[in-house]
Amino acid sequence: MKIIAQIPTSRRVGQGWSQEVTELLEVEVKGVCRHRCDAYRKRYYYDADVIPPPQILPDTVRMSMYRHKEGLFRVQVNRTLNKKWKPPKFEDGVNYVDV
Questions:
Q1: 3-state class of 61 per DSSP?
Q2: 77, 85 in Cβ contact below 8 A?
Q3: Is 10 exposed, middle or buried, given 0-12, 13-18 or 19+ CB atoms closer than 10 A?
Q4: CA-derived radius of gyration, the chain
Q5: Which of 22, 26, 24, 2 is nearest to 12 (CA)?
Q6: Are 21 and 8 in contact (CB under 8 A)?
Q7: Domain of life, per the record (predicted)?
Q8: Per-domain residue ranges for the chain?
Q9: Neighbouring residues of 37: CB distance < 8 A, sequence distance ≥ 6
Q10: Which helix (H) or strand (E) holds 60?
Q11: What is the pLDDT of residues 30-57, one digit of tens each?
């Protein structure tokens, strides 16, 4: 399964600050996780573990906040950019599915 995601491709550096510049790229999904939007409704946000494309900023893959499994990169699934994307079936109590 493929989705369009924001991938950091370069970094701007100034005096005392840095900013990652992202591009919209099509990436291959290997796993999907979900987390609740709030405590009252059964709505979810979805994150996807994707294979890092060659254009990705090399430092980003090593950062632990983006890495779930070795060699994969976690991105948010933007439902506006991926109109045809449907979340996979999750079993009760399971919040991660390998695709």
A1: helix
A2: yes
A3: exposed
A4: 15
A5: 22
A6: yes
A7: Bacteria
A8: 2-83
A9: 43, 44, 45
A10: helix 58-62
A11: 999 999 998 888 899 999 999 989 998 8
